[in-house]
Write a structure and sequence with these properties.
It is a single chain. The chain has 430 residues and is an alpha+beta fold. A hairpin with a 2-residue loop joins β9 and β10. α1 runs parallel beside α6. It is elongated, with a radius of gyration of 27 Å. The two termini are 31 Å apart.
Length: 430
Amino acid sequence: MSVEGLPLLGLEIVIMDKRKKLIVIGGGASGFFCAVNAARISPNLDVLILEKTSKLLSKVRISGGGRCNVTHQSEVVEDMIDAYPRGKNFVKKTFHQFSALDTLSWFNDRGVAIKAEPDGRMFPVTDQSETIIQCLLAEAEKFGVRIRLQSEVVSISRKNEFFELTLSDMHKATEIERSDFICVSVGGYPKESGFDWLKNIGHHVSPPVPSLFTFNIPDKVLHQLMGVANKDTLVKIPALKMQELGPLLITHWGMSGPAVLKLSSRAAKDLHALDYRYDIIVSWVPAFHESAMLEKLKSFKVVSPKQLVHSRNPFELIARLWTYLLLKSHISPELTWANITNTSLVALSKSLCNDLYSVEGKTTFKDEFVTAGGIKLEEINPATMESRKVSGLFFAGEVMDVDGITGGYNFQHAWSSGWIAANAISKGTN
């Protein structure tokens, strides 16, 4: 080999890899979206995903009962904003850069068709979360994204123009990785101490508390209705003057379903302050207030005097729920409507419209639950997802103090923030 005609004898030439490097910390939806988009936009960028567990995209896999609630149907950004109890002004800025429509286009361009359900939730037409997972994995392979499992980042430090990351594997062995850019997409932590490694580089945290959880109600008779769902239900928390309307599901520990999950999200920090002990009022037929309900029942008594009260109800409630409410109102299901006293009808009106329960605790969905809290938003530039405190450090997804109600909103935040970070990082490689 020669240079300009001169022989090089006995010399070893080392060609340095001058590619810039991005390390994405966390193998969830936002992290993958950042990684695959950054690698696609900047082919010369070396992209590595570090995941501390042995599983990738775990929340994607279990979301929506295994179907993956990809996003929420919306053609106007402003329609989405009220679904974020924390961070609505922040996501308003990010969704104008990458919206729900952009999410649909991105997956559609890769052969993944998305459908909308009547309530606005959107799923792959296959009804399989694996469809979304395989799409993201295929993008990672196509653009050379490297992935390392069981590699936990325990500290980050800035060394001149590089970052140094200290890693710990499952055997507690440590090593050092260097990178030009970092995107932190680790999701939420249940305890504030989980953020210590990010606090150590200058960031501040809104303390995390659970969001999207069910209401534990110590009522064994109610528990016998496990699996019963009521389509339209109004759930109120009188102490907080908050309420939500939507489907309600009775479980073996209390109440769940969209109405409860949305309410738990909006009231997350207040309910934490109450130590998850408070009263709720359930309206099983929210179209009626109590006095109108009483008149409806009296009218039904007149037109159906000989019918057994359990055989038919005026509101098409599920039979098991209707019987439960009758018994709770001290009405025998075997009575005819003609034999129900006005006093009993008053009690039934109350059970239907203002059904009181005491909540004592919560239940979260293990890996699926969302936390309220995280890196304070004033420390992040919404136009780029870059830290305002540490140049070259980016954030995506739930690690920030942004969380949405159930219905695909948290995934939309993941896609948007991951895409924005990827584009900003790619510009920095030029």
